[in-house]
Design goal:
The chain is α+β, with helices and mostly antiparallel strands. The protein is built from 23 helices and 25 strands. Helix 3 packs antiparallel against helix 10, helix 7 packs across helix 8 and helix 17 runs antiparallel to helix 21. The two termini are about 40 Å apart.
Length: about 750
Amino acid sequence: MIKNGIYRDYLRDIEEFNRLYRDFKEGKAFESDFKNFRLVNGIYGQRQKDFHMVRIKIPAGILTADQIDEIADIGDTFSNGVAHVTTRQDIQYHWIKLEDVPQIIKRINEAGLTTKDACGNALRNITASYLSGVCPNEIIDVGRLAQKLTELLIGKYENLPRKFKIGFACCEEHSFLVPFNDIGFLPVLNQGKPAFRAFVGGGLGDRPKYPYEYPEIINLEDLVLFIRSVMDLFDRHGDRKNKRHNRLKFLIQKLGIDEFFRLLKEEIQKNSAEYEKFQCNAVYVEEKEENVLPEGKDPQHKIWIETNIIPQRQKDLFAVLIRLPLGNITTGKLRKIAEISRDYSVQVRTTQDQNIALINVHREILDQIYHSLKEAGLNDYGASTYLDITSCPGSETCSLGITSSRDLSRAIYEKLPKDPETVRKLKNITIKVSGCPNACAHHHVASIGLHGIAMKIEDTLIPAYVIHLGGNGTLHNQKIGYTGIKIPAKNVPDAVIELLNFYLENSHQNESFEDFVERITPERINKLLEKHKELYKKVEYNIDWGSDKQFSLEDLGTGECAGIIADRVEEALKEGERLIKQAETHINRGLPEDATVHIEKAVDIISSGLLIPFGVKAEGKDAREKFIEQIIGRKLVDEKFIKLLDRQIKDPHELVNTAKEFYTICKETYLKLRRETEEKREVKKEEKARKEFLDLRGVECPFNFVKAKYKLKEMDVGSILVITIDGEESIKSVPQSLRDEGHEIIDIQEEKDYYTVVVRKR
């Protein structure tokens, strides 16, 4: 890795972030400009207004102890002290305030990592098997390749039609999710040298697609050439208008795979002289050695060894998996992992199963590692098994989340059998839960997958899930699961348990769950689960898991990747500005007729765009007429522009100058409308929110926190709770505990013999 970090221009980005954020707050910048910039710098909006998620990009998931400590410090300083490991080996924090972002970006980059391109329509984190460099079946250390490629490509693709994902398998066995990237690579030997089979156009989302294998082997030195040629092709031909059809898989579907490969070969030929040969010192030549798992000392230790320890290719060395429930880990436990890494000289990697792996653990220190993990509460067995449920954040923080997927996952986990004998029988089964159809938890490639929906029962909206059966995400057995029946959320845990028991009772010896589904048939399994569609008395089906409020989609957003009305307005205004500048260039070159054509088009587009917030869809002459009626008629724009809209201006110079003024006024009008709309929302929110008081003086820890927590549960989001507490221990612990719950501490005041804590419910 580059000594100065992955990305060197972060100070310039911080300066630009500060400028755009200031202009955005003052109503001088388009929302889309600020949003797009923060997205490509890893800052994503979350469901709760005023809070954001920061995603730290970790190529191949490889971390040092110092980096882990810095990540933990950032979580304590700016978030709620809970880090989340993602399925792309990143680490992210929620509950971040925008004003803290510049400090966070600076600290992350100074630690040798970055947030650059972690979100947005960019080249996302390049993943690689966490066993890279130690896998018994590998040909080359793909982790090092992912790091090197990140260094070469970061910042070069930030305005793609949509996000772009690349993944490396170390071998066919350890290739989970590789086929469902935009480009997936599998190492092979070609004339005795490391090379790659390449798979393009795979993807999940709400319309999953299998990949196509490129017909030629890609040599190591041609990796950058191949990747950039695919991305250049996607950049040029991808659909930028229809955001539901703008991933690479849809471009291939539109062109046809034969035509796509023809164009790709032309692109490779064209770029071959421009892009440098790829060089990376990552080749492995050593032979693998026999490595037998050690014996366990008690039943729990034995099952931990069986599920959490993987023999490496190097004699007496092992990879140790640390299972993180739903991918979450506290900053205190992160520091413990950093300490273990230093004390025992082991490497640390994040995994695509949302766990952490310790690499190069010698046989002689396995017991010490186990006891250190046990002391920290990090010795849960069942890594990458059915006990290790993958879940997206769902409605907890995601603006697209329909259901509370994490809380459902917890409810399922509570019911799962955890005895060693059953774990051995079910360990190859996976459970993945997404809070909407977008497949962030990869439910399509799970043995048992679930995605959240809203279901109407007798005029009542309830949370529910669609079940998916028999999926698999590896190259040698890739399978998009069968879509099954819809089940009310409260019945899902029982349905999952029945399905697992049915498998235990009816499967053949060593029969995989995927083969079991094929043999039994999805139809028979769906019929078995039909009973779980029934509604039982005394069950509050309109209350989601982990909630105490009636289920609703009122606060469901459109998501930052799906686009919003503001984007369309701002795109229209910016396109109009571009055309006006082009017209001005034509005037300066003595081409007035060309200038007039561009001005006419610009006025049409600007008029059409500014009508969108008023629910008016119009184009061309109709847009001009509606603009006069709806915008000028409301006195939002001066009547003097009617001459421009009615095509009464004939002089090209006057036409350009008037159009420039028209654009400026329309931009100011839009920004003013947006600001007024936001202010009205805030007023309504404050009107709805209530202010309550809670006297906790004389109440000891932790009971004062519990009372505050339950009081906040009764209140609406945005409401203010004023707490009075006494004692040094209370003031140290209660506010932080409420932050950990996701609430905002607005103020803490020291009175004569007590403290006042002002909390806003989030």
